[in-house]
Write a structure and sequence with these properties.
The chain has 331 residues and is α/β, with parallel strands linked by helices. It is 39% helix and 16% strand. The longest helix has 15 residues.
């Protein structure tokens, strides 16, 4: 049997070819270890069977997104749980998503919602530094280009994951010329390129690098496990760029098999109890609502200066800069 035949058999097995009215099908880009317990709780509390398809680490969030696009004319999923909003925006542009204004979205700031109701953010990560314990350390992403840090900094490959979104955010905020110049300076300053945020964190905590920009969950987990590192929120001074915040996004799939169950699941994902659960989980995610109870090492949104970005512009830039990033990385 060829690869296409095998894929079709696996997909048919996954959804039993005809999801029942008491089911809901969700495609998930958030790490399974963090998302699955939330979905199991939803099952127990509602009696609705959740059929979940999880992205692989290798796909970096694009696997299930591409499947949703491929299935547009015959949708198999009801809900998409994106681990950042950019791919939700791509799906909206492709006509894959449906409007849904959840009553549970109350209290979530408007900057983290699609104004037309095609995605709603919840439980975010921030792009922060993991830094060594010695010395003063970095305070701004501009430190990547400073001579004092030459050859001592690391960043994940910008062709993948949240690092791609971060770079696209710089292009959207600064413009192409300034962003390209900054990346050229980083290259000239000897930045080490790692395979992932996890590897960047390891390179800092084992002393091979002095600092690296990673997701806040990577930094929080390193500190919690007693590794020699600390979290630094960058660009917090007056007039500074601010820290990029990337929420999860709940998306209703257009013409999915069970819209009502999909809406119920989205309501659950957007609820305060889900935000609290993800804050206390090892992913240490940041609630978007004010006043939520969190562990002391989880950042509070109101306590940080957030980078002002238009996620739709970031999504556009992300696609525009791919040729530049491939040349920059030598791929």
């Amino acid at each position: 049997m060829n690869k296409l035949g095998i894929s079709l058999v696996l997909l048919c097995s996954f959804i039993s070819c005809s999801p029942g009215s008491s089911d809901v099908v969700i495609y998930v880009s958030e790490d399974q270890v963090f998302s699955e317990p939330v979905l199991k709780d939803f099952e127990r509390e509602t009696g609705i069977k959740v059929r979940a398809l999880y992205d692989t680490e290798e796909a970096k969030g694009t696997g299930v997104m591409n499947r949703l696009i491929a299935e547009k004319k015959n949708p198999r999923a009801d809900v998409y749980w994106a681990n950042e909003p950019i791919r939700a925006i791509v799906l909206k542009e492709k006509g894959v998503t449906a409007q849904y204004f959840s009553p549970q979205a109350e209290g979530i700031p408007f900057r983290f919602k699609d104004r037309e109701g095609h995605w709603t953010g919840f439980s975010a990560r921030a792009r922060v530094f993991i830094a060594g314990l010695e010395g003063t350390g970095p305070t701004s992403i501009l430190d990547y280009a400073k001579a004092e840090w030459k050859g001592r900094a690391v960043m994940a490959n910008p062709l993948f994951g949240t690092t791609t979104v971060w770079v696209a955010s710089l292009f959207s905020v600064w413009g192409d010329e300034k962003a390209k110049d900054f990346l050229s300076q980083i290259r000239a300053n000897g930045v080490k390129i790692s395979s992932s945020n996890g590897e960047s964190t390891l390179l800092v905590t084992n002393g091979e690098c002095t600092f690296g920009l990673v997701d806040s969950d990577d930094a929080a987990n390193a500190v919690r496990s007693g590794k020699p590192g600390r979290m630094v929120v960058p660009d917090q001074t007056e007039g500074g760029l601010g820290c990029l915040v990337l929420p999860n996004a709940a998306v209703l799939v257009r013409n999915g098999p069970n819209r009502k169950n999909g809406e119920r699941l989205i309501d659950y994902l957007l609820s305060p109890q889900t935000e609290r659960r993800l804050a206390f989980a090892d992913c240490a995610q940041i609630p978007l609502r004010e006043g939520m109870e969190t562990p002391p090492d989880v950042l509070a949104l109101k306590s940080i200066k957030v980078m002002e970005v238009d996620y739709e512009m970031v999504s556009k830039k992300l696609r525009e800069i791919q040729p530049f990033l491939r040349a920059w990385t030598g791929n």
